[in-house]
Write a structure and sequence with these properties.
The protein is mainly β. The protein contains two helices and ten strands, in the order αβββββββββαβ.
């Protein structure tokens, strides 16, 4: 019997115990798809899971107001209740990408909806893309015709120029 337990104890000795308490907040308000969560401080872009009944919904952090975290719900708010636990999930602002997504139909969370099973071999990429510095981009030398005479008269656009 002791021979069976010793390998388990050796394996447990190599593991670092995690004594940090789990982070979660509580759903304080819901106005359509806009949620207010109290007690959870996460960066903008963080995906969070909201427990409801036997399942969970996903929401993304979009801002802060009066000490609460504002989130946009990525699902149907019908089953949400005040006080539901909200837990952060994954790295903020990162989305799954990779060749495994080619030819697949996915929802807004990157989960497959085509009935062909889970998508494996994911990599992560910043949702906003990788931005290059303004001085590292090539200069704008050629003007761009918008096709709208009023816009062309009031503003000159250039090929490769960032607008907005």
């Amino acid at each position: 019997m002791l021979n069976f337990i010793e390998p388990l104890l050796d394996g447990m000795a190599l593991c670092e115990p995690d004594f940090t308490p789990p982070r979660y907040g509580l759903l304080a308000a819901c106005d359509g798809g806009m949620l207010e969560v109290s007690g959870l401080s996460v960066p903008i872009g963080t995906q969070c899971r909201i427990a409801h009944g036997s399942g969970s919904l996903t929401a993304e952090t979009i801002g802060f107001r009066n000490g609460r975290t504002l989130m946009m719900l990525l699902g149907d708010p019908v089953l949400l209740r005040p006080g539901a636990k909200v837990r952060p999930e994954g790295r903020p602002g990162m989305v799954p990408v990779g060749e495994a997504f080619l030819g697949r139909a996915v929802d807004g969370e990157g989960k497959p909806i085509d009935g062909r099973g889970p998508i494996n071999g994911r990599h992560e990429w910043p949702a906003g893309g990788v931005r290059s510095a303004a001085l590292d981009r090539s200069p704008v030398r050629v003007s761009f015709d918008t096709g709208v005479r009023a816009l062309n008269a009031l503003t000159t656009f250039g090929v490769g120029q960032r607008i907005g």
